[in-house]
Automatic annotation (TrEMBL), chain A:
This is Benzoyl-CoA-dihydrodiol lyase. GO terms for molecular function: lyase activity. Pfam families: ECH_1 (PF00378). One of its GO terms (biological process) is fatty acid beta-oxidation. CDD domains: crotonase-like. The keyword Lipoprotein does not apply. Keywords: Lyase. It comes from Umezawaea tangerina. InterPro entries: Benz-CoA_dihydrodiol_lyase (IPR017633), ClpP/crotonase-like_dom_sf (IPR029045), Enoyl-CoA_hydra/iso (IPR001753). The keyword Magnesium does not apply.
Automatic annotation (TrEMBL), chain B:
One of its GO terms (molecular function) is dioxygenase activity. This is Benzoyl-CoA 2,3-dioxygenase component B. Keywords: Dioxygenase, Oxidoreductase. NCBIfam families: benzo_boxB. It comes from the Bacteria. GO terms for biological process: phenylacetate catabolic process. The lineage of its organism: Bacteria, Bacillati, Actinomycetota, Actinomycetes, Pseudonocardiales. PANTHER family: 1,2-PHENYLACETYL-COA EPOXIDASE, SUBUNIT C, PHENYLACETIC ACID DEGRADATION PROTEIN PAA. One of its GO terms (cellular component) is cytosol.
Length: 553, 473
């Protein structure tokens, strides 16, 4: 089955999005029969990938299409139920790769909500109007503020450990202790009791921020939302940019977008990804950028790349190595990025475009594929596009003329710009350059001085920006050997190794979620205690109790 | 020094209350709150004494002690059925092991949840029936209302006892929560939907005690099988009292039908509203409503929770001991009838273990049929052709497989328009309710009774019908 990430609010099956001045209401109303895959019913606002794809679509559109929205109220349209979390039967029936990919995507969407709160002045407010368990509470945890209905029975809960023998997989444990600073002993009690915590105790333990009575709950939430909106920074009268449908031609051999192309080589297990630079000059002003809307190069290319990453991760799990190229004029790339970099502080759209690129690059960072950047003549690895190369596990740069035209004077180059020194941090909070040259600030400073001019292969090699710089005679063979060698290694060990090498330095909530939490979770998922025939996850819903191997590992 | 409360005197019990300091402390905190709740949420009508049965011991003589009692001074007792020292777990993965006298840590949350849900229904019905005393059709009925109410109060005590005695601080918090949630409250409603509906008139009260309290009987019956012995013994004793509530319901509807049949015969018309009787089709609509709302209380047809509770030994099946199977239910299937979007019924086979709610509901429906048969016999004896029936279990449902479908009382799946056009024929209309309410005038004179209901065949405890069951100010 091929999963598409195209959605539009007009045809959401599981959500209702309503914008009321500076406040948007995002109401979860999951269609029980609307599962992405047959075989389970999405009862009690439980979700699967399909539900989360709509949520992701809504969060993106809120940022671009509704610049005036300062508070997003996340709530449920079902009485007495907020959200019961990821659908257990779906999880139990899913393959391991599907579960892992599902968790990754849901994590990215929740991180995106926090990103909107922090960087877009669009704060999320969870209005928990009923039972809120597991992934449902994790969804609330990703919000800036949590209001719980005080009806004497509604609880928040993380019942994964006691009921399913797995972990809350979308950041629950991390956000509990890191973000909300819940004391670890209380977190321990909370995460081991299936029935959750309600009312005053939930506030006292910092599991929620405040309670509101059942009668007039919506009004209380609306008042709180309006209050949050007061302090928001988004412009009052801005006109949004419509995220028009992506133009995409998908075949068995690849996917073609306006600015991005992916060609599959199934026998080699590779995808050749090419991101094309702009063909025209940069918009002359911020107003012109607004005028271009979704067709502006930076926005369009980010959306296309984002969509490609999501589709490849979900639909093409056997294509384990991505070869990333660029094609175009580096000067034009720099000109386009300059408009948004210079105006991001004052213009909401510039800011959004920047953050969309940031999130897309972060997706690349946590993608479980070997990433190899190929810097060739005719490419445009400059500024923001150079981040693609820096995100890769290895960078190869051709030192010489194009392989098929030895007389050409054209040479490969990379260009550093201010885009490489701050606006696109990784999940660890560091730029890709500072991650690459961890604790070598002198070198990063030196690189900054080399900004804004094309660097040759020899220079780039000398500055440590590429892994190797083969000449035109060696190039084809060299790249072939790299790809073939890679394909021969264990995909699991590669995923683990790459994830370890990519994230140096400090831990953040994000790195913990994608590293510590996800890795433990994915290990637990494959253990017999969860997924064996008598494991807790498999036995859930059968009425039979799990049988555990009592050895602590 | 505060005066020492003599608990054995105030609270008749067989749980060694006077010797249990922990329990005393808990009840000291709770009892005043209970009395406040009773004062605020209990029966509105003030009396100077009601002829009530009080349980003072569990034995044959002790459980039915009759006397006039000033209701706030009613001695809400705590009783568990006698302990069977050899009792063994009858089902699930612990089958054959000795029953538990303490809560196993593993099942603490589940047991607490089961007890809280059961406990939440007990005071709820007292709240729902709060105003009924103002319109009782006779002193006999008024007395029965109070009896039902104080027993629901006692059942609350029984659940609170379990929470206090076995679930520590959390149990005490939950016990307090049972008084903080209130039926129909916009802020903190009762947990189950049916317990937030007002019992607006006496026909509804009889229907409630017939259909909804009968659900209670079946739930208690499953908890009586519990491996947690104190819960089992508590429920066993509660079932005795629940039987009285059923009696009030069964004979109550009997008496309404009897009176209506009499009016139909005397006036030779089914239109007996004008002569102060309740037309048979209105009674049928009440049956339709109360039966189906009560079916919702059984939860979804398939239930993982119920299956887990069974495997764990927390909650069994109705008359588990008489079932002839392996009492583990890990094999075998049950056929389930499901409505489909194209308007037909289809069947689905599910694991028996997952269909325990359906199993219990089946027992309940069979039991309800006996009532309908009884009422039809009255019509037959009066030479009336009209017959009552139970609607299809898919009719008017808000919970389970049928929720979201429109099913007629005879089991046809129809569209929204057909439903809307016929709803008035099937469920009590605003006019029906207003009409029944218009008949509700209090009759407080000894030996007299309202126009719409026949007097009982027997009085309480061999007293005649015209006995002064309630002393009014």
């Amino acid at each position: 089955m091929e999963v598409s990430f195209d959605r539009h609010p007009d045809s959401y099956r599981h959500w209702k999005l309503r914008v009321d001045g500076p406040v948007a209401w995002l109401e979860m109303d999951v269609d029980e029969q609307g599962g992405l895959v047959p075989g389970y019913e999405l009862k009690l606002n439980s979700y699967d990938l399909g539900v989360d794809i709509e949520l992701h679509d809504a969060t993106q559109r809120l940022r671009f299409e509704h610049p005036g929205v300062r508070t997003v109220v996340l709530t449920s349209a079902k009485p007495g139920v907020f959200c019961a979390g990821a659908n257990i039967r779906m999880l139990a029936a899913s393959s391991h790769p599907w579960k892992v990919n599902f968790c990754k995507f849901t994590n990215e969407t929740r991180n995106g909500m926090e990103d909107a709160t922090e960087h877009s002045g669009q704060a999320y407010l969870a209005a928990v109007n009923g039972t809120c368990a597991g992934g449902g509470y994790e969804l609330a945890l990703a919000c800036d503020r949590i209001v719980l209905v005080d009806d004497g029975s509604s609880t928040v809960a993380l019942p994964e450990v006691p009921l399913l023998g797995v972990l809350p997989g979308t950041g629950g444990l991390t956000r509990l202790v890191d973000k909300r600073r819940v004391r670890k002993d209380r977190a321990d009690v909370f995460a081991t009791r299936s029935d959750g915590v309600k009312g005053k105790t939930a506030v006292e333990w910092r599991l929620v921020d405040e309670l509101a009575p059942r009668r007039g709950f919506t009004e209380a939430v609306a008042a709180r939302a309006a209050e949050l909106a007061e302090s928001g920074t988004r412009p009052r009268d801005a006109v949004g940019v419509e995220l028009t449908p992506l133009r995409r031609k998908a075949t068995a051999d690849g996917i073609e977008y306006t600015h991005v192309t992916a060609a599959f080589d199934r026998s080699a297990g590779t995808v050749a990804i090419t991101v094309r630079g702009p063909r025209e000059g940069a918009p002359s002003s911020v107003a012109a950028l607004h005028e271009q809307g979704a067709s502006g190069w930076l926005l369009a290319s980010a959306r296309e790349l984002d969509d490609l990453i999501l589709r490849l991760r979900t639909n093409e799990t056997e294509l384990g190595t991505w070869l990333i190229r660029t094609d175009g004029d580096p000067e034009l790339v720099l000109a386009h990025e300059r408009v948004v970099l210079e105006n991001a502080a004052t213009d909401w759209l510039c800011n959004e475009v920047l953050h969309l690129w940031k999130r897309t690059l972060k997706r690349l960072d946590v993608t479980s594929r070997s990433l190899v950047a190929l810097v060739e003549p005719g490419g445009c690895f400059a500024g923001v596009l150079l981040e693609l190369a820096l995100a890769a596990d290895r960078q190869y740069m051709l030192d010489g003329p194009p392989v098929d035209d030895e007389d050409s004077p054209e040479r490969a180059s990379v260009t550093l710009s201010r885009a490489n020194f701050g606006p696109f941090p990784m999940g660890n909070g560091l730029t890709r350059l500072r991650s690459r040259f961890y604790r070598d600030e002198d070198h990063v400073d030196r690189l900054a001085r080399e900004s804004d001019r094309p660097l040759s292969a020899a220079e780039a090699d000398g500055l440590g920006l590429v892994t190797e710089a083969p000449d035109d005679l060696d190039w084809d063979d060299e790249i072939r050997l790299v790809v073939e060698g890679r394909a021969a290694l264990s995909p699991d060990s590669l995923t683990g190794m790459e994830a370890n090498h990519r994230f140096v330095g400090p831990e953040t909530v994000e790195t913990k979620i994608f590293g510590r939490l996800a890795a433990w979770q994915n290990w637990i998922f494959t253990r017999p205690n969860a997924s064996g025939p008598d494991g807790a996850l498999r036995r859930y819903g059968t009425g039979r109790k799990a049988v555990f191997d009592r050895n602590r590992v | 020094m505060p005066e020492k409360i003599d608990y054995d005197d105030k609270i008749p019990n067989n749980v060694n209350l006077s010797g249990d300091r922990r329990l005393q402390r808990a009840l000291e905190g709770w009892q005043p709150k209970f009395l406040d709740w009773w004062g605020e949420m209990g029966p509105t009508l003030r009396t100077n004494g009601v002829y009530l049965r009080t349980a003072v011991a569990v034995g044959r003589d002790g459980w039915a002690h009759f006397d006039h009692v000033n209701v706030p001074d009613y001695r809400w007792g705590i009783f568990l059925a006698e302990r069977d020292a050899d009792r063994r777990i009858g089902f699930g993965e612990h089958a054959g092991e000795p029953v538990w006298q303490q809560v196993p840590g593993e099942y603490r949350a589940d047991l607490q949840r089961l007890i809280v849900i059961q406990g939440d229904t007990e005071p709820a019905s007292v709240e729902q029936q709060k105003l009924l005393g103002l319109t009782a059709p006779s002193l006999y009925d008024l007395r029965n209302l109070f009896q039902v109410n104080v027993e629901e109060g006692r059942h609350l005590w029984a659940m609170v006892y379990l929470l206090h005695a076995y679930f520590g601080k959390e149990g005490r918090d939950e016990a307090e929560g049972l008084l903080l949630r209130n039926s129909g409250s916009p802020d903190a409603p009762r947990i189950l939907g049916a317990f937030n509906e007002e019992t607006a008139d006496w026909l509804a009260f009889y229907m409630f005690t017939y259909f909804t309290d009968r659900d209670g009987k079946y739930q208690l019956g499953t908890l009586k099988e519990s491996a947690f012995d104190p819960l089992s013994r508590t429920c066993e004793f509660m079932l005795k009292e629940e039987a009285h509530h059923m009696f009030v319901g069964t004979t109550g509807v009997d008496r309404v039908v009897t009176r209506s049949a009499q009016l139909v015969r005397e006036n030779d018309t089914l239109e007996i509203g004008a002569c102060g009787g309740i037309p048979l089709d209105v009674i049928q609509k009440y049956i339709n409503f109360h039966f189906t709302v009560s079916l919702d209380l059984f939860g979804g047809e398939t239930s993982t929770n119920a299956a887990n509770y069974y495997t764990a030994g927390l909650k069994g099946r109705w008359q588990e001991g008489r079932r002839k199977d392996d009492h583990r239910l890990t094999e075998g299937g049950t056929v389930l009838e499901k409505p489909t979007a194209d308007g037909t019924w289809t069947t689905d086979e599910v694991q028996t273990l997952l269909a325990l709610n359906l199993d219990l509901r089946g027992e309940y429906i069979a039991d309800c049929r006996t009532g309908v048969k009884r009422w039809n016999r009255i019509l037959e004896e009066n030479g009336i052709g009209f017959r009552f029936s139970l609607p299809h279990p898919g009719f008017n449902r808000a919970v389970g497989l049928n929720a979201g479908f429109r099913v007629t009382p005879d089991g046809t799946i129809v569209d929204e328009a057909t439903w809307a056009a016929n709803r008035r024929k099937w469920l009590p209309t605003t006019e029906d309710l207003a009409f029944v309410r218009s008949l509700m005038h209090p009759v407080y004179e000894r030996g007299r009774i309202a126009s719409w209901v026949a007097p009982p065949v027997n009085g309480v405890n061999d007293k005649p019908f015209d006995y002064e069951y309630v002393y009014l100010p």
